[in-house]
Design brief:
By secondary structure, the chain is of the alpha/beta class. It is about 45% helix and about 10% strand. It folds into two domains: about 170 residues, HUPs (Rossmann fold, 3-Layer(aba) Sandwich), CATH 3.40.50; about 70 residues, no CATH class. The longest helix has 15 residues.
């Protein structure tokens, strides 16, 4: 059923770019599209500069194994330099999405014939309140290109089932961090998420501590549940933050919008 729909919707496009983040959902989306259109499929990875170490290698490994051409695009400005100018991102000031993802994608698309291409994502409607209000197939208002998610109606169980059935290599970062994390911006991370990073990759976490130290007026790296949380404190006692906070970020704004 999913394959027939995919064939019908995408047959009109000459080039199909699958936005492959290295996560499970985008892995399944990539496999579905590649299975239907092996000659027209390209993978597109946005390297935010603050992806989990090892993620880019996984993305390259998967696309090479399928013989899928891979385009890697990056933001013009370094995340930590932007933090020094703007402070760390929060849910009410989520500047990271614009600079790290939307702007590079817009630059990539500017010379493309937008009527001939489609961007495929791994968005699933049951991931979050916000994603449940997106569409499966639509024209992006900012980019002017068609967007499609072949896994929009998949449950997490169906995603895992597809990976197992087709023998796809699951990203090993899930076993370490719980997610692949193509972006470690602070807008949608809990203190416990960063505590895991401090324990598993202290060298990478140190960059966040140093960026926090450069903030003026004593700014903190995280603002979580109406309180400042400092990376320097997480670095000292990461186990305490794992005990105190949940791993999965709970967005107070999204919860408010559901009532």
């Amino acid at each position: 059923m999913h394959m027939n729909e995919t064939n019908i919707l995408l047959s009109q496009f000459k080039q199909i770019y699958v936005m492959f983040s290295g996560g499970r959902d985008s892995l399944v989306a990539l496999h579905i599209i590649w299975s239907a259109f092996p000659e027209r499929t390209r993978a597109l990875f946005i390297n935010t500069g603050i992806a989990t170490p090892g993620l880019v290698d996984y993305v390259k490994e998967i696309t090479t194994s399928f013989n899928i051409p891979l385009d890697i695009i990056s933001p013009k400005e370094d995340y930590f330099e932007l933090v020094e100018k703007k402070g760390f991102p929060t849910i009410t000031h989520r500047w990271c999405k614009h600079y790290l993802k939307l702007q590079p994608l817009q630059e990539f698309l500017k010379d493309k014939n937008k009527e001939e291409i489609v961007l495929v994502t791994g968005v699933r409607k049951d991931e979050s309140w916000m994603k449940s209000h997106t569409l499966k197939f639509y024209v992006h208002p900012k980019f002017g290109v068609h967007m499609y998610s072949p896994v929009y109606e998949f449950t997490e169980k169906e995603i895992e089932g597809h990976i197992k059935t087709h023998g796809l290599k699951r990203n090993p970062l899930y076993d370490v961090y719980g997610k692949a994390y193509d972006c470690w911006c602070s807008a949608y991370k809990s203190p416990a998420d960063f505590a895991i990073l401090a324990l598993k990759n202290p060298e990478f976490f140190q960059k966040f501590v140093e960026a926090e130290e450069r903030l003026r007026k004593g700014g903190s790296g995280l603002f979580y549940n109406h309180q400042k949380v400092y990376f320097r404190d997480i670095q000292k006692k990461p186990e305490e933050y794992l005990k105190q906070f949940e791993r999965n970020y709970k967005c107070p704004l999204c919860r408010a919008l559901t009532f």
